[in-house]
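Homework help board

Subject: predicted structure for assignment chain

Our instructor gave us this sequence and asked us to write out the predicted structure in token form, then describe one feature. I got the tokens but I'm not sure how to describe them. Can anyone check?
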Amino acid sequence: MTAPEKMLWQRLRLRPGGFKFRRQHPIGPYVVDFCCLAERLVVEIDGAAHDHPDRVKFDDRRVQFIKENGFRVLRVTAERVLRDVANVADAIVARVANPLHQPAAGPPPRAGEAH
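My token output:
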């Protein structure tokens, strides 16, 4: 694990908000940095190596595979983790607790439709 991953793991392993996270969790042929299985959220920490053109293509294929298998993917820069790990951990917990879209609830109602 990289230094930012270790820093974030020290927060996520405490089950913030009651959510259990796993580190270095396999999904198909890939191993993700962190995963909350119950909420189907993957957290990836991106360092400078992820800016290389070949790595960008690999990351895009990887994220596509993970999404096709029912997970949401949250990517966070290593720099952001190093700058304020507490804020990053809080933002992850907020995303888990209040996802932007809840597939089990179905699509949101269209304008003018009854709720």
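Reply (TA_rk): Your tokens look well-formed. For the description, you could write something like this. The chain is about 40% helix and 20% strand. That's the kind of observation they're looking for.
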